[in-house]
Amino acid sequence: MGSPEAIWALWRITGRPKLALWRLTALAKRKQARPRAIELLADFGELAAGAQPRLREFLHDRDDWRKTEAAWALWRTTGDAGTAVEALTSVVQPLAAGNYLPVHLAAMRHLAAITGTSGQATGIARAVLANPRRLAFSGGWRTFDEDDQIRAAATAYLTTKTTG
User: Fold this and answer.
1) What is the pTM of this model?
2) What is the dihedral of CA 130, 133, 138, 139, to 10 degrees?
3) Contact between residue 66 and residue 41 where contact means Cβ atoms under 8 Å apart
4) Residue 128, CB-side half-sphere exposure with 13 Å CA sphere
5) What is the 3-state secondary structure (H, E, C) of the chain?
């Protein structure tokens, strides 16, 4: 069937979304779908609205990457900000306690981009900025980079929600 990236590239090169969307949707509908297949559906916007039922199922997935990318794709394909924000907020919840995983960065970035807000997500973003410890998953120099990135994402969230 092909990799999600190759299928996505087929659409971008040919300008014809039908076949690419059909294949990517088929990949995303698999029970153990790769988060990348779900994420790429978001680029199709409303054209991928047919994947909405499966995307909604992934919002309750135990895999935070699938949940994160499904929330993003759902918002991009349907405009349902409330449902997406709720799912993404559940993913970033550990940040409030100072726990960090790379998926939290993706979820916080998506929250900043979505035209919806959550009091709980706002509190989490403030907790990230108030935390005196470095928030990171890796060690070494990556610790500084990861901490800078999650703080920038939290700042972007707070900036877009208070000024936008």
Assistant:
1) 0.86
2) 150
3) no
4) 31
5) CCCHHHHHHHHHHHCCHHHHHHHHHHHHCCCCCCHHHHHHHHHHHHHHHHHHHHHHHHCCCCCHHHHHHHHHHHHHHHCCHHHHHHHHHHHHHHHHHCCCCHHHHHHHHHHHHCCCCCHHHHHHHHHHHHCCCCCCCCCCCHHHHHHHHHHHHHHHHHHHHHHC
pLDDT at residue 108 in the model: 96
Cβ neighbourhood burial of 71 (10 Å; 0-12, 13-18, 19+): buried
Alpha-carbon gap, residue 38 to 57, rounded angstroms: 12
In the chain, which residues have pLDDT < 70? 1, 31, 162-164
Q: What is the pLDDT of residue 163?
A: 60
Q: What is the pLDDT of residue 1?
A: 55
Amino acid letter for position 151: R
Q: Tokens in use for 62?
A: 């135990």
Q: Please give the Cα distance from 32 to 133 (Å, whole number).
A: 35
Of 4, 154, 163, give the one whose Cα is nearest residue 92. 154
Phi and psi, residue 5, nearest 5°? -65, -40
pLDDT at residue 60, as a whole number: 92
